Amino acid sequence: MFDMYYFSQRSRSYDSDEHERGACEWCEYALIITLATILLIGVSALTIFWIFFYREGYAWADDVPEKQFNLHPTLMVAGFITFSGFSVLLYRICRCFRRIYVKLLHAIFHALAFPCIVIGFLAVLDFHNKKGINNFYSLHSWIGFVAMGLFGIQYAVGFFSFLLLLICNKGTASFRASLVPIHAAFGILTFVLGVAACLTGLTEKAIFTLGSETYASMSQEAIVINAIGISVVAVAVVVLYTVRGTGGYRLRKVSAQHPS
After folding, report:
1. DSSP secondary structure, 103-161, as one string
2. Cβ atoms 94, 139 nearer than 8 A
3. 75 alpha-carbon distance from chain centroid
4. Model pTM score
5. Which pLDDT does position 28 carry in this prediction?
6. What is the spatial distance between Cα 50 and Cα 32, in angstroms, rounded to a whole number?
């Protein structure tokens, strides 16, 4: 007899020790999940408010390139923070769901983030070309570029490994199990890089648009921009705190007398 790791086929749900939670732990869990949800939605809402109230809204036209640029911060925050954040939290929120449902929701939220990131990137690239501004001249640009690359690789690898390979479930189980911690680690890294890109981009936009003196004097728009930045940091802290100790779903250690 020997021990091995395998996915529980009887319950087909993510293993958790929620039945062992006390009242205080349940309160903490509910509070953190609620706070994370409010922050994830709120940071996108605050960004949209900033654009409409201070930046005159959105457009994709040659005569108003600045309005076209406005799509960039909004869509990048929506893609890298809101949708990606919810995608990460699903593995903590949906602990009692069947694995396949959580995987599908995880893929859907990333699928929603993908066009946001692509359109946001094209918007700023086209804006730079119209204004004669060099591309990839700042730290923000390169952090965002690396985050986009990792996001694309993560989505392609995850979709192929954890959804398509389910066609041959038993034959690929060990491979998928070994890939889980790698996929989870790079997923968190991509999310953190997205947060860093958003923060550096907000700071860059504030200084270039408002000027260092106006930004330092905390004008009303500077306060809103800083509020968005603080919200992004709060999202990162809450999301990472929520998923602490969980690398996606856990593997259960059982004896060989219960083969998968």
Report:
1. HHHHHHHHHHHHHHHHHHHHHHHHHHHHHTPPSS-SHHHHHHHHHHHHHHHHHHHHHHH
2. no
3. 12
4. 0.82
5. 78
6. 26
